[in-house]
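**User:** My hope is that you can spare some time for a protein that puzzles me. I have put the entry right below:
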Amino acid sequence: MSKKKHHSKSSVRPRPVPAPPEREKKLPNAFRRKVVLVALFLFFISFLYWDSLKNDFINWDDQMIYGNQAIRSLDWRNVLQMFVPGKGTYQPIRVLSYAIDYKFWGLNPLGYHLTSVFFYLLTCIVIFFTSRLLSKNILPLLSAGSHNRIAFFTAFLFAAHPVHVEAVTWLAARKEVLQGFFLFFSFYLYLQVRESQEAKKRLIYIGSVLLTFLLAILSKPSAVVLPGLLILYEVARQGSTVRSLIKERWLFFSISGAFSLLFSLILFKAMGWAGSFLPFYGGSLSTNLIVSVYLILYNIKLLAFTTGYSAAYTITASFKFFSKWTLAAFGLTFLLFVIALWSRKKTSVFFFTFFWFFIAVLPFLNIIPITVLLADRYVFIASFGYCLLLGFFFNSCYEVKKGSEASWFFKGIAVSLFILLISEYSYLTFCQNRIWRDSYTLWSDAVRKYPEGNLANAMMGLVYMEKGKDEEAVKYLKKAVRIRPIDVLSLNNLAITYWRLGQPEEALKAFTTAVRLEPDDDSIKLNLSVFYQSQKEYKRSEEILKNLLMKDPNNGNLRLRLGHLYKKAGQFREAIAEFGKSAELIPQSANSYEELGNIYLNVFGNSEKAIYNYTQAIKAAKEPNSKIDELRWTIQDLECYR
């Protein structure tokens, strides 16, 4: 009996409880972690940049936003026009983003700041996921926890770094956060292509990579460096040669390379039209290349030594190759390149992060000289390499003595150092946001830090001009011109300030110097014409306007100005002719009709023609105002006495 019982017991096996499918268990947890991560970034970046929401437009924003008529409409014709290359920079996505802001916020700077901070938040989130994938592929032997820590350290260091304040807080620099989001998203999608094994999914990813790459270029053309960054990743990941990589993926790199070449040509053409290219620094290609080497180190300094940030820098560089400073700059740069190349055989970490920095900053090294030598915004994309290197460093400290009793000590050291650095970065970011409060706080800070800077003095002079403090404005504008005698804009502003101060001789001297230096700048010539008119030198004023009309005979505004000139000179028949042409060319302008009505009424006593032109002015007016109401009363009075 006992034997039978024993047999019965052993033959009945307990039914195994099925474990929940791994996917069902992991997906909700992974989703929760992502939600928590996004919430953390939202809180942290809001904490860092909340104060910037109080900031006003600055005088650097005037051309891009405050005075930009192109952003006043989202009509499809206007949107299409944004994507047509013209003179100056070609950044249609930036212009479109301003137009969307204007639609909802008008000219309230709060809305524009919210948009910039939002895109910065998106950029930092994408950087977290990009860093985690990069870590897995460059250092596959590390644990999953290490990859997450590296991504966490990197993304939060990037979010807090004070060098990014210019890119986020300066509204005209919207291009940086737009380019940053689309470029990093494109890079992340490329990493996903390399992970995916399904042909259909790979095709979708490749299409998405190219689309986001295009959007990055249309935000800021310096995104053309992305193919170089992708090749760098491939070399760091598997140690392949550039030739073999291009051979294996020739189609993708051909398309992305074509994008880069096409938009580089568009940019060069637009900048050439706008006169943005400068002569070689030092006068020759060799001296210009010396400056480029200095700029590599200056850009590293912006990232590693977080002090002295400014809206305008003064660069100290020797143009002599055999000077001690130039030799030291070349020696240090060469050493960094050697260490980076050597590290490729070891861990690829320094190799990847250093060359990421170098490729990303390459368009701003002034190999082809541009207006600004050094700016915080120029290292926005490049700073990812630096933050990623710090992320690897903090994780390495965290992993010291792993598994031993002493491991907690090194974990504490790593976390403490990270918190200290984040705290320092956050404090400096707060300070920088307050410096960008308005034009005065920005440029007074720049002048204090770099008193011999041309741009700082020029913009400070403009601030005082806008405040009506012309004597202070002259002091800064004169200094700007002394530092850089070919500064045409400062000469123009100096002339206007002298004019307002009642010093016509000094004003004329500054105007004529500016015209001699920039003979194709019609705006300066127009100012000179108005100046001559104010001095009752009508013939000289007329000569300038007629020369401008020879280039653009259908310019209604020039016709209007010439009409005003003739009216002031007492040449009323000529004034009527020009006001009439202006009215034909700009039928929606009330000014020309109003001036015609005034001349017919006050000079010729012709009330009938006066009433006709005043009526046309009322029809042309976009919206009622006090002047239009006045014209209505004038018409009513004239009709009563007819």
